[in-house]
Structures are given as C-alpha cells and as structure tokens.
Amino acid sequence: MADATVKNATVHNNKGDLFTSFDVADFDVPHGKDEVWQFVPLRRLRGLHNGEFAEAVLPNVEITLPETAKGIEAEVLELDDDRLRRTGGAVDRVGAQAFTSAQKARYVHFDKDSRNTEPVTVHVQGQGEGVTSFGHLVIDVEQGAEAVVDLRYTGSGTHADNVEFIVGDNAKLTVIVDASWDDDAVHLSGQAAVLGRDAVLRHNVAVFGGEVVRIVPRVRFTAPGGDAEMLGVYFADDGQFFEQRLLVDHAVPNCRSNVLYKGALQADKNSDKPEARTAWVGDVLIRADAQGTDTYEANRNLVLTEGARADAVPNLEIETGEIAGAGHAATVGRFDDEQEFYLRSRGIPAEEARRLIVRGFFSEVIGRIPVADIREELERRVADELDTLKAKTH
After folding, report:
1. Whole-angstrom distance, CA of residue 195 vs CA of residue 201
2. Is 182 part of any domain?
C-alpha cells in the first residue's frame, strides 16, 4: 500500500510516471477540476468515483471458446493469484475501486506457440438497475502464440472493471472491445497491456451504447520490437458521454505504435437529455532510452448536429531525438458540405450522400477489424445511428 500522505498527488516527471495503486484508499475522491476528470460528468457516475455506489454484486461474465480452440484455458481465479495484477495498479480512483471490490477474476490463457484465429468471446452483461458490479479480466498470451478476443459489454446497469493484456515475446493479440450497452448503462474500464519482445497488439474499441462510458487503455513496451495499433470508433447521441483516455509508453528502443480513433456526435435540440458529448485524450510518451521509436496518433470527430460537443487532446512527449518518426493530429469538424455537394452533383440524393460520407468516415477504422461478423455488426450500427439522425432532422 502506498503512503497515505502521498496518495495520488505524487509529483511525476512525465505522463508515464503516474501514481498507481491497487487500493482505493490511496486515491482522493476526484473533482471536476482534476485534470484527468475534467471532462467527466461525475454526478452521473452513480457513486463509482466516491464510494457511494449501489449494492455490489458479482458480474455476469460468460466466456465462450471457439470450436477450433487449441491451447486455450479459461479459469476463475482468487484475487491473490500471482497471475493477476502484472500490468500494474490503477491510475485513477475508479480503477482502484474495481481492484478493491472485485470478488473474483476471470483468466484466459493461450499456450505457447498456439494459433487461434477465431475469437474467444468474453461477454459481460450488466446486472440491471439498482446494483453495481466490479470485474477483473486477464488475457495472457504466451510466447509465440496468436489470439483473438471479442470482449463484449451489453445490457444495463453500473459496472467498473480492470482488464489486463499480457502479450509474450513474438506473440500476437487482437482484441475487440465492444461497448454495446443499453442507453442507461454506466461503465468505466481500465485496460492495461504489457508487450514483450517483438510482440504485436491490435486493440480495437467500439462504443455505441451506454449513458456514460469511459475507457482508459494503456500500453507499455518492455522489450524492443513491439508493435501496438490502437483503433477506435464511437457514436454519441443525446444524453450520452463517451471518453477515451489513452497512454502509449515507449520505454525501450525500436518499437512502433499507431493510434487512430474516429467519432461522430448527434443531438436533438428539442431533447430533455444532456447534450451529446465525447472526449478523447491521447498521450504518447517516448522515453530517453526509446531510440528508434516510430509513432503516430490521430483523432477525428464529426459533429453532425447542433447540441453536440467533442473535445480532442493529443499529447506527444519526447525525451530523445533519436527516433524514426513521431506525430499527432486531432480534428473536430462539422459535416463536409463540399463532399455532399460533389455527390449530389452526380445525382445522389442529399440524405443518401450524407450516409455515404459518414459510413466512409468510419470505414477506415472498421475495415481493419479482422473478424468479418464484427465488421458487419459495426457497419450496421453506424447505419442505425444515421437512421436516428434522419429522424431528428425531419
């Protein structure tokens, strides 16, 4: 346990040296003026941030292995098991609350040199109104293994969890985090990945449902040759707040990272719900010993109606000049009238032109997901959101 007099106010040298802990008592209750909570509607977190949450119950988690599974084991672990907590402690109070309050952990292990291209499905279903659930999940991919995980959240309720990804030397993990909650759900998730030598991580996030959803992914390279790609799509409507807050920590030489998130927002000006709101904060740290790093991060936001707001904050911190490349970009913009005019000039009706532009906006990210069924499902959700937009603008 950390020194209670220090807690999370510890001064740190860079974005990667944040205070971490497994104990909620080590964190002060956050306030809106705190940098890491400045965008979050704290009053809508149902007490996850201050300990005033409703009765805690076990999460409803179902793990399904594909018929072709080879070298995969799924277990339920006690919280003192050494296979847990290898990616480090939480960086905020809600993550520490989940560490403190989770009663069991789910563990999925992929054997050394095993090859699995069909996804293992981890389905977390909300426990409904009036209760709170806390979860812990570990995905452990041994040296030389290849794995795909579909981490799916559905239903309603209040849920907080920590997810650990351990990717061994020369291993490859593709994970799809699909937050398709009902619109009354609140979910906060800390997701930490540790990559070995020449390890490959493909971390994909899709957020289309939920009242408040905040996902905090972190990637740490422990040996040269690591390759991390972090992709995300999100679409917010009236009353929804989505935040993605990332950290990619380049601490060793010759690693690569690429971050691309795309979001759209729409709102009904006559709605009695809060405005549609998203926040994206992307931190990339290149430490002094991380020579040869190649990294780029970008966030693009499309605001489709009045009454919607997107915040985008890319941060690039470089402590060595001996790198292959580094860059970042972020945009928040309205619908592109020139693109619509171009399509309409070729005989495409206005509504269909708008649909084509928005679907094309997301296709750059969705098209990289390697599981066809998931790609098709996300494309369908974009289409459903556009049907909602049509209704709001008529």
Report:
1. 8
2. yes
Residue 353 domain boundaries: 7-392
Classify residue 1: in a domain, yes or no: no
**Nearest CA among 325, 248, 256, 326 for reference residue 281:** 248
Q: What's the pLDDT band for 4 if we cut at 50, 70, 90?
A: very low
pLDDT at 271: 81
pLDDT tier, 281 (very low <50, low <70, confident <90, very high otherwise): very high
Q: How many domains does the chain have?
A: 1
Tell me the mean pLDDT in the region 303-326: 92
Residue 87 is assigned to a structural domain of this protein:
yes
Angle, helix 372-392 to helix 350-366, in steps of 10 degrees: 150
Spell out the residues 6+ positions from residue 94 whose beta carbon is closer than 8 angstroms to its own: 45, 48, 49, 160, 188, 190, 214
Question: Percent of the chain scored above 70 by pLDDT?
Answer: 91
Determine the average pLDDT of the residues in 291-312: 94
Residues β-bridged to residue 282? 246, 314
Q: What is the widest separation between alpha-carbon atoms in the chain?
A: 68
Amino acid at the residue 357: I
AA identity, residue 124? V
Q: Return the pLDDT at 327.
A: 95
Mean pLDDT within 83-102: 97
Q: What is the DSSP string of 108-140?
A: EEE-TT-B--SPEEEEEE---TT-EEEEEEEEE
- Would 2 be classed as within a structural domain? no
Q: What is the DSSP letter of 39?
A: T
Handedness of CA 371, 372, 373, 379 (dihedral sign): positive
Structure tokens at 130: 């009036």
Count Cβ atoms within 10 A of the Cβ of residue 296 and give its class: 0-12 exposed, 13-18 middle, 19 or more buried: middle
Q: Could you tell me which residues are beta bridge partners of residue 255?
A: none
Rounded Cα–Cα distance for residues 201 and 141 (Å): 11
> What pTM does this model have?
0.93
